[in-house]
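user: can you give me the structure for this one chain? tokens are fine.
assistant: on it. calling the predictor now.
[tool input]
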Amino acid sequence: MSIARAVAAVSRLSPKSSALLICDMQEKFRNHICYFPEIVEVQSRLFEVAKILNVKVIATEQSTKALGHAVSELGLDRSNVPIIEKTKFSMCVKPLEEQLGPEIKSIILCGIEAHACVFQTAFDFLAKGLAVHVVADATSSRGMPDRMYAFKQMEKAGAIMTTSECVILGLIGDADHPKFGEIKKFVLTTAPDSGLLTGAEPPSNSSSSSSSDTSPSSSANTAAVS
């Protein structure tokens, strides 16, 4: 088998060998992340598909005393998703690795911030030999330059930059799949725009406006160590 064919075989998504990792989608970030509502909506679509296909889902929260818990609209706690608290920026911590198990060969990665925790998570799992699929329309940062350049760096490092619809179709694989009827609604409705084509911050982005919330200092994740 050629190297290209071997890489393609490893990278192809399968429900049994893939895990959806949702990084640090915490309440404190709500008013400071570019396209936060859209990112949450896309993650919710991925999460629903993962439940239908029995894809393993694991989430993390960064220093909850400073940054709070995962946003309620994702419903992670109501679905008994393992939520692992961490202080390390990367999600690649022992409790999470133990949850993954040896059968997982591909990581479907989304969350915040693209240039911090998601970035370091991607590099760590690539170093361990796993295929990493970064879902661009489900991943963001406080600033669009940080977000877009993080995507470029992760792709250069070997991550597969993808979209939520591409992931969903990759997991289902065939229109004859017995669960296709339940899943097709998630692809018939286009995912919301999260600024990927323009690279522009949303006009109402509250990271550039005043807010009653305290902005996470310097970086969304740097605040957690203060």
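assistant: here you go. The radius of gyration is 17 Å. Confidence is low (pLDDT under 50) at residues 1-9, 205-215, 217-226.
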